[in-house]
Amino acid sequence: MATWHIGMFRGLRDTGRTMTATRAPTANRAAGDPVVSLIEAYRERGDRRAVEQILSMNAKILNHIVMRYTSSSDESYEDLLQVGYVGMMKAINGYRLDSEAKFSSYAHAMIEGEIKHHLRDTALVKRPRWARSLHARVSEATSRLTTELGRPPLIEEVADEVNITPEGVSELMKLFCDTDVLSLDAGEDEEVDVSAIKSLRYETFSLPIEDRILLDQALESLTELQRKVIYLFFYKDLCQTEIGRKLGLSQRKTSRTVASAVKVLKSSEALKDSKSAGSWGLE
């Protein structure tokens, strides 16, 4: 267990010392907690063996937390163990020596917090591109309206600003709020109705949001070049000549790429049963 963290805590040591709690009078230190002297040895002399001993003494806590979150997430044990080591080093650097709580209790909270933070960030990254983009628009609109109105905006006001139904905004928020610490503890996500995310009004030369969601889902079946071409064609409204110029392709290559991409899109699972896809020009 010591092989990984030794290399890592070198990098954490310098930054860690900036967040190290001020050394407290020895009289008020946690009585009977042997880890205190080891923390002092590390902080005062950079003693690596002290860190190894601390990790060894708290290995059961670390493994217990990692195993619990491994069983309730898609992350591997090894990946979460690395995250757990980061939390442990933060605990070593941040523990107050005059604290009434034992180090093991503080380390438990720090390790668990680090893993939850990691899972939350990982879950957000895994959200579809259309969802991340739409969520950014909703967040920006909410901040702007709060400033303009002098109060938090109603969901209907945000919906009108971003041109999405209020029900759609609610479902989008649910998609992101289910990565909250509470739901991570619960171990299961609340069902999200993506079909409720629709445009309030149609805009000229722009696909409604429900069609963009279908298109984004279908794009996953394309090659990288095909995705770029379709993106420029549908999202940037460029003609084939402009697309070829932008990507450095001949007009013949561009035309073939558009044709092959459209063929794949039309046969994709996401668009196969779509009634509106026929109006997109996938001819």
Main attributes of the structure:
Arc Repressor Mutant, subunit A, disordered N terminus, elongated, mainly alpha, 15 helices, disordered C terminus, 283 residues, 3 domains
Question: What would you say this structure looks like, in words?
Answer:
With 283 residues, the protein is mainly alpha-helical. It has three domains: 2-125, no CATH class; 129-196, Arc Repressor Mutant, subunit A, CATH 1.10.10; 209-279, Arc Repressor Mutant, subunit A, CATH 1.10.10.10. Helices cover 68% and strands 0% of the residues. The chain is built from 15 helices and no strands. The protein has helices spanning 2-18, 35-45, 48-57, 59-71, 77-94, 103-126, 129-149, 155-162, 166-177, 181-186, 209-219, 224-235, 240-247, 251-267, 269-272. The longest helix is centred in the middle third of the chain and has 24 residues, at 103-126. It is elongated. The model is unreliable at 1-28, 178-189 and 277-283 (pLDDT under 50).
- Describe the main β-sheet briefly: none
Query: Which structural class is indicated by helix and strand composition?
Result: mainly alpha
Helix content: 55-70%
Helix and strand sequence? HHHHHHHHHHHHHHH
Strand content: under 5%
Give the low-confidence spans: 1-28, 178-189, 277-283
Q: Would you tell me the overall average pLDDT?
A: 75
Number of strands: 0
**Alpha-carbon Rg, integer:** 26 Å
Number of helical regions: 15
How many distinct domains?
3
Topology of this protein?
Blueprint: H1 2-18, H2 35-45, H3 48-57, H4 59-71, H5 77-94, H6 103-126, H7 129-149, H8 155-162, H9 166-177, H10 181-186, H11 209-219, H12 224-235, H13 240-247, H14 251-267, H15 269-272
Helix pairs in contact: 1-5, 2-3, 4-5, 4-6, 5-6, 7-8, 7-9, 8-9, 12-14, 13-14
